[in-house]
Amino acid sequence: MSLEPLLAHLAPLGPMPPLERWDPPLSGDMDLTIDAEGHWIHEGAPIRRAPLVRLLASVLRREADGHYYLVSPEEKWRIRVVDRPLLIVDADRDEGGDWWLTTQVGERVRLDGDHLLTLSRTPDGARVPELALRHGLSGRLNRPLFYRLVEAAEHRRRGETLALGLASGGHWHPLGCLDADGNEVACD
């Protein structure tokens, strides 16, 4: 399946298309996989053009059936996502103390009640934070950013558990929890 027909429908659109208004019928399955490291692979070859990945990410959504789709006004193609479709690669704090996180495609999101960090398991079983984004999508913190945020994290005691996280947008965003012996435990 060539990406050109899908891209033809998207060329005149701005950076954030109105996916919530588009409801075309399923066109089929596309041989496109987003692997656990966030690489976009089409027909066995990595997509190396960052602008193309940004464009495709702008029309990606996850639907109630749990599948991921690339959507245009006239087409909807199901793709495969191994873990999370996006990676969170950078973070900074604003003057008010809120955290802003940035995906590998340049989308910048403030940590708040609509964009929460939660802990979930990766395909290899590690418990790593993910960020709720738009249209049912989420992004996984990449390893360098995770360690950077752990260094900046606030520590809160919950009984015998030490919770590490970030306060932002009026909410607590967990990065992980440790028991009294320093072992990773679930944050309840």
Oligomer: single chain
Reading the helices and strands in chain order gives HEEEHEEEEEEEEEHEEEE
The CATH topology annotation of the largest domain reads as duf1285 protein fold
Euclidean distance between termini CA atoms: 44 Å
Question: How are the strands of the largest sheet arranged?
Answer: 3-2-1-6-5-4
How many structural domains in the coordinates? 2
The average pLDDT is: 89
Spans of at least 5 consecutive residues whose pLDDT stays below 50 are 10-14
CATH superfamily of the largest domain: duf1285 protein
Task: Count the beta strands.
Answer: 16
CATH architecture of the largest domain: Roll
Describe the structure.
- The chain has three helices and 16 strands.
- It is mostly beta strands.
- It folds into two domains: 4-81, duf1285 like fold (Roll); 86-185, duf1285 protein fold (Roll), CATH 2.30.270.10.
- The strands form three sheets. The protein has a six-stranded mixed beta sheet with strand order 3-2-1-6-5-4. Strands 9-8-7-12-11-10 form a six-stranded mixed beta sheet. A four-stranded antiparallel beta sheet has the order 13-14-15-16, covered by helices on one side.
- β13 (154-158) and β14 form a beta hairpin.
- The longest helix has 10 residues, at 143-152.
- The chain is elongated.
- Residues 10-14 have low confidence and may be disordered.
